[in-house]
Amino acid sequence: MVDLDKTMAEAKAHMDKAIEHLEHELIKLRTGKASTSLVTDVHVEYYGAPTPLTQVANVQIADARTIVIQPWERNMLSPIERALINANIGITPSNDGEVIRLLVPPLTEERRKELVKKAKHAGEESKVGVRNGRHNALGHIKQAVKDGVPEDLGKRIENDLQEMVNKYVAQVDEILAVKEKEILTV
What is the pTM of this model? Predict the structure, then answer.
């Protein structure tokens, strides 16, 4: 029984990671509003080492459509600008010699639909991750039944596992619905 508890805990951890990954991917999708999360994954070459942008500059939201990046060292303006261009976030940085501004353009209807497709694709990947967790756990459960665990206990655990999968798939759908509404809101 202890082995089956461990199997269920591992399956739950796997499914939690799938949800966490989905949320991380959805943060990267622009919704037409300025958000510092657009640049959280950007790394800047700082004295030869790739360093997160937030460790070499102050990143702030100036208004609903503007992100302002103020480096702590003036000589970092050019490397930050280069890193933002290379990050391919879809926004061209504007450097005025003091700060770098990112002007988030309003989204067109076509772009909104494209972003919804990307969000749904990320959701599908998360559902696949959840199902992979179920698949791995089912293998362990079937092996435990072969090794002497009562069959009715194995079936009960399998049912519990399927309930967990259904809960996580519903959670993915819920997260996607919220993000879709956010993207389509003008």
Answer: 0.71
